[in-house]
Amino acid sequence: MAANIQIEGNPAFARIPPWVKAKLRPIAIEKIQQVHDWIEHEVVPAERIYKAQLKEARWTTPAIVTELRKKAKAQGLFNLFLPNHFEESPGLTNLEYSCCAEIMGRVYWGAQTLNCHAPETGNIELLAKYCTPEQKKKWLHPLMNGDFSSAYSMTEPDRASSDATQVGIKMEITDKEVIINGRKLYGNCKYNEEMQIFILMGCSDPDNKNPWNRHTTLVVPANTPGLKQVRNLSIMGYDWAPEGHGEYLYEDVRVPRENIILGPGRAFEIAQGRLGPGRIHHCMRLIGQAERAYELALVRCYEPRKKPRGKFIGEFDSNIERIAEMRMTIDAMRLVVLNAADTMDLQGNKAGRYAIAQSKIMVPNALLKVIDEAMQIYGGQGLTQHTPLPEIWTYARFVRVADGPDSAHRHQVGRDQMKTAQGFRERAEKYTARYKELCKKWNLEPEEFIGIV
């Protein structure tokens, strides 16, 4: 099929930069085209069906999603995110998947129809990377098959979770089981019966001298006695049903010791392996959300029923400039995301942490502005349920703090850059030494500059 797909002039590839197109293999070209056709013809037209069904059963996955998931699975469109170095992967690189994820992001729940939504993407990659064959059979394979959904549980209400060494929920590990006590925030809601497992990070060895070895990650079935959902947390006024964001209380929750992933004390190794891809997936989808907002703004610009002073909204100079700024911002942020994905492919998640952090910091901030400008073009109507814009904006704002606030990522980037300072000082000293040599050659008196080596 891929050999017959024309890339140039094809809307599925219209926003993909030339350097990325040159790297796309036939399998990727085929999948990008399939995802584009899927979102355009199956998902976007069903948005209002989704809303109507959700209104009838708030914490049940809408029937339209269930039907689309079956259809997508039959077409080989499930789990496209899993990188090609995993045996369970459908074969795409991070860069190739980025092109698919942007298209999925055009509708908030679009990725869910393809089993490529958060937190499933990060959780599946975690289980694929770190679980034993027995654990994979129990949890990974059902998740990849869409039999149930999962949650990742790390954030706590009374700890500075941006410093994950402070995660404090207690885990007592015995010969046969792990006993858990404490509170957590943001794991998906148990109200939805499809949500059946939590991947939980807790403190199992608080007295360990190395703070990076104090924590353990394990799987907790959602129906385990003692695990209680206190409430759902609204995000900017939205309940985000049917998945939600729960607040949980663990009271003597007991799970078998074999539910531990990788081993006691290895939670940070697992978290870093998970968070790189998870962070970048959010940004990939957000590019698609911003494109949708941009397109809605263009639609509004030439709405014949909205002609202030007899002119289309798009004929005013201020809006022409606004559209130009939105277009350039989205294109620039796409390059940031694609660079991060390519860096992960070429150098690995750890080596790519700067590019990942760059995406996590810059993309949500910039695209929040794009979406806000689209809302301005719609005026008061842009703040209502008449368009997807308020939910798109809220998702972008949420992504700014998902997997850590901006300041945490900036601090990490800044610390890494400070490590390069001495090398630049040495270079500056060489420049000065060479300058003094040139002064002698040309019979000039060297000048002294305070603060310059």
UniProtKB/TrEMBL annotation:
Belongs to the acyl-CoA dehydrogenase family. Keywords: FAD, Flavoprotein, Oxidoreductase. This is Acyl-CoA dehydrogenase family member 11. One of its GO terms (cellular component) is cytoplasm. It comes from the Eukaryota. Residues 33-147 form the Acyl-CoA dehydrogenase/oxidase N-terminal domain. Residues 268-415 form the Acyl-CoA dehydrogenase/oxidase C-terminal domain. It comes from Paraphaeosphaeria sporulosa.
